[in-house]
Amino acid sequence: MKPLPLSSSAGTGLAMRAVSERFDKIQVPAAYRLVAEAIEREILTGRLRAGEAIGTEAELGRQFGVNRSTVREGIRALEEGGYVSRGPDRRLYASLPRYSRLSSRMSRAMVLHEVTFRELYDATMALEMASIEHACAVITPEMLAELAANIEAATAAQDDPVRLSELDSDFHALLARASGNRVLELAREPAGLLFFPTAELICRRVPEGARRMLEAHRALLEALRARDVKLATTWMRRHLVDWRKGFERAGRDLDEPVERVYARTLAPPA
Amino acid sequence: MKPLPLSSSAGTGLAMRAVSERFDKIQVPAAYRLVAEAIEREILTGRLRAGEAIGTEAELGRQFGVNRSTVREGIRALEEGGYVSRGPDRRLYASLPRYSRLSSRMSRAMVLHEVTFRELYDATMALEMASIEHACAVITPEMLAELAANIEAATAAQDDPVRLSELDSDFHALLARASGNRVLELAREPAGLLFFPTAELICRRVPEGARRMLEAHRALLEALRARDVKLATTWMRRHLVDWRKGFERAGRDLDEPVERVYARTLAPPA
DNA sequence: ACCAATTTGTCCGTATGTATG
DNA sequence: TCATACATACGGACAAATTGG
Lengths: 270, 270
Description:
The first copy, chain A, is an all-alpha fold. Chain A is 63% helix and 2% strand. Chain A has a two-stranded antiparallel ribbon.
């Protein structure tokens, strides 16, 4: 059994090479991969726009000069990547990879790599602070209304930990969206998908958990309304420190790795 | 041509449904997808560990009771997701999704969604500040040595913008790794893949660009050696503000969307 | 160094179910 | 209702690469 080269790959590819070997082993790309790359390239360059029909499998096979089975293999890869999808009529359409899909993949990868709650906590702290800071500057009345609706729903669901943790996730997702920064929104999502569901655990184990969470959310909303960055960031920090205290009071250790269990519940694979 | 439902999906799925329709349309999952999910589940739950052999296509077909072509389609999807990969012997092995793969896909998605350099800049600011802050606390002599080596290489390559921007990317990737927080490392990577390559442009257009970049990197390294958080964060902020000035002096506008061009050069779809 | 077995990559032909007109 | 077009899946076939004797 040969060890797979699972190169973690940070840093531009400077692969070590034995000096005795002058050339890399030549490898012919598989036909199905060439098909996939050709179609992907059309989308990446914009020649194929999202929503446009790709063509039938048979036609693609004819164009590429390969068998239909080969086309199908390429299609499967593209489908997984989110670059093509099937319409209601089962035909092929070009499509843009959806954020949510990518985020949940990242989350699952983090679970498999056994990241700890501490890593999750520290990263979330940085990302949520940035979100609220930017949101303060650019938040719209519509987003304020959505946040208020979220808080209202949470107030009504104070005794339902499951629902409450869902609403907590949503609240912070809304905040990120309110920041008007999609890069930030995207960056925080994978961690958020693992972090915020723990609110359920905390609400179950810590009596005042739900109350403190709601109190923080209300304060955050008020600070946003007043566009008071200082106040908002203070409350966000307090909110997250609260989470940490609750997590530990629930008998958990920050240095535990995130459980595999989450990987299953995450994103029912399409 | 029907509009594809590209649901952006923030907020827990509360899909609108016409009241007249009592049931969702029933849909049978495709066989190849069941194959893929079955194998993916084995890996997610840990029953199949990374590096373990999956079995031959023919054998899988026999076990699942489907045709080999169907197995192959499922394999293609899993391959794209990073859950299985081919060994040097072309056999199938379970595998963990690699960060770099996921990151570059995120980057490409951001390009396709036409995020702006401003979004990239603001997010990078937050993420790099957090990285350097944590790195200050936990950096190891080994990582300090790697950073020093990077700076040395950059000093030697002062007149080569391409090489210089590669080294800039690497420097910040190393910083993130030095933070000891893989969640943070992962969160910053997609933005980093788009942000730091712009150093090439800046070095070409702004005469003092390379010098200032190196100066900042050296100062960051010194601050890390001294474990001086205050100094380190100050320099990081200065470094990024410098980037912004350089970007604008190069005649670019922060509110431009990131070019499609990048999507092509990004991550040759291995 | 040669050979046999195994396995992948690709291709072909066909049957079936379903959606559209 | 019928006919067409298409995706899904199956079975079989062969060349090339790899492995193991």
